[in-house]
Amino acid sequence: MQWEAVIGLEVHVQLATQSKIFSGASTAFGAEPNSQACAVDLGLPGVLPVLNEKAVEMAVKFGLGVKAEIGRRSIFERKNYFYPDLPKGYQTTQMDAPIVGPGVVDIVLEDGAERSIRIHHAHLEEDAGKSLHEDFQGMTGIDLNRAGTPLLEIVSEPDMRSAKEAVAYLKSIHALVTYLGISDGNMAEGSMRCDANVSVRPKGQETLGTRCEIKNINSFRFIERAINHEIERQIELIEDGGRVVQETRLYDADLDETRSMRSKEEANDYRYFPCPDLLPVDLDDAYIDYLRSQMPELPEEKKARFVEELGLSVYDANVLASSRAMAEYFDRTREICGDAKQAANWVMGELTGRLNKEGLEIQQSPVAAEQLGGLIKRIIDNTINGKAAKQVFAALWDGEGHTADDIIEAKGLKQVTDTGAIERVIDEVMANNPAQVEQYRAAEPDKRGKMVGFFVGQVMKASKGTANPQMVNQLLKQKLEG
Amino acid sequence: MALNQDDVAKVAHLARLAIDSSNTQAYADDLTSILALVDQMQTVDTQQVDPMSHPLDATQRLRPDEVTEADQRNLLQQGAPAVEQGLFLVPKVIE
User: Fold this and answer.
1) Separation between Cα atoms, residue A22 and residue B65, nearest integer Å
2) A337: CB partners within 8 A, 6+ apart
């Protein structure tokens, strides 16, 4: 039987505020345990939460970025459950009246195909603390620094049909929140976490199968593996005559498997009710219009500009607009060298290749956009040829000079375009290789094309790679014809 | 809607309330009569009434995004039964 997977994602994005969503404690990462957990975060008696205006602003910006209806009146509710990392005994969150209503996110698949994934809603909530299970003689250690950190939970419709689509969706969300500057998007530090709802059904069937929720997937790589694994597990189960049970499963990256989290099942009765400590949040048109006017250029608009104004291919535009850092690097490089196509080729080719090899992000590139732009400029004005350009790039990477011009000068890589100088080298090469010259002249004209390569190589070598290759080619042919 | 003793036991467990099993029938009866009142209120026509999430006719004030709280860990952990390396210690919980 042909099976179809149905996937919906819940993405938790940590908002890049300075202070917590309901208290004035810091949200900085990596502090001493519990040094950033104040009385409000600990849920001590008598404290009152006060909502952070920046968290509201960031949520609205996300809503505008996914073309969603913004909740004019949103309400905070209490989700009740008991766990030591949740000192109040409830999580303050939103349910019936979230701040961001239905919207849509466009995704690009590996083959370049585009699809739209609907957003069901997005809501504001607080994060819980962290439990540490090692080294405490049968006890669990609790660090509440993260408790009260603002999260935006983005809930998709079950619109994805493969793990690859889920990855593409997560990448789109990642690009959007980093473009908007509302999150650092750092998955390793937990700034973006993802739960996946996965079910399978026979292809063509309308009704959905029973779903399982996979919790806590923290990298693009794991999400694909975890979902594929869960799809296979469900199909095997059904084909063996079994039935999928609705449950929460945890992905174990070490074992590459999902396993049931039974202990949470009976507690799945959260008794939501409106939080009496927080009043409804009212947003008016003037506020929303103001934030709309503050929106930066988003990935979709960037892509369109790259294609329409700069003449890049859709593929190139997709790659370059995939992150704000990449797009800004490309834009600066392009402005300096004045050639979008060359800038795109260098950023996506030599630069990305080297970054991947060294495991670096573009923000960490040792070669700045200004330096790369300066290098490309010298290719365009024929100061250096392509081969020398690669040497200059490597030297810039290794910090051997501050600008491309410095390195070209220091290494003597300036391209020789003086006909007389090139001719002298050619004469020398021909004098040193009389046998090859004779062979060439004796050969049929249609064989000579290939044979000229030998001489080009010798001339380039003798000029230490600085001769202009086109001129070498042309002059060699003339001289060899005699 | 009538609650039975099992419902009472479940709700008590969810709320971590220790109740004496000899009292569950009495609680069930009390809660059932409260729900009867809710049923009665449900019959009122509320088509023209906006749902109310809060009794005060006011909206939430927002605060600027500023760090105002200093580290008071030592003070705040004085009431904790067990602390180690700055962490609160609790009986082992593990999934």
Assistant:
1) 10
2) A343, A372, A373, A374, A375, A376, A377, A380
Chain B residues lying within 8 Å of A39, measured CB to CB: 72, 76
Q: What percent of chain B has pLDDT over 70?
A: 98
Helices A163-180 + A324-337 axis angle, to 10: 60
The mean pLDDT value for B26-54 works out to 92
Residue B23 distance to chain A (closest CA, Å):
23
**Under 8 Å between Cβ of A471 and A419:** yes
Count of CB pairs separated by less than 8 Å, A with B: 132
Cβ distance A274 to B77 less than 8 Å, yes or no, reads no
Nearest to A24 among B60, B68, B85 (CB): B68
* ipTM associated with this complex: 0.89
Residue B27 maps to a domain: yes
Q: Please report whether residue B37 resides in a domain.
A: yes
**Closest Cα of chain B to A213: distance in Å?**
15
Q: Which of these ranges, A49-58, A105-114, A274-283, A444-453, has the smallest mean pLDDT?
A: A444-453
CA distances from A91 to A43, A74, A138, A353, A392 (A): 11, 16, 27, 44, 56
Residue A309: pLDDT above 90?
yes
pLDDT tens digits along A15-37: 999 999 999 999 999 899 999 99
Architecture of the CATH domain A419-481: Orthogonal Bundle (1.10)
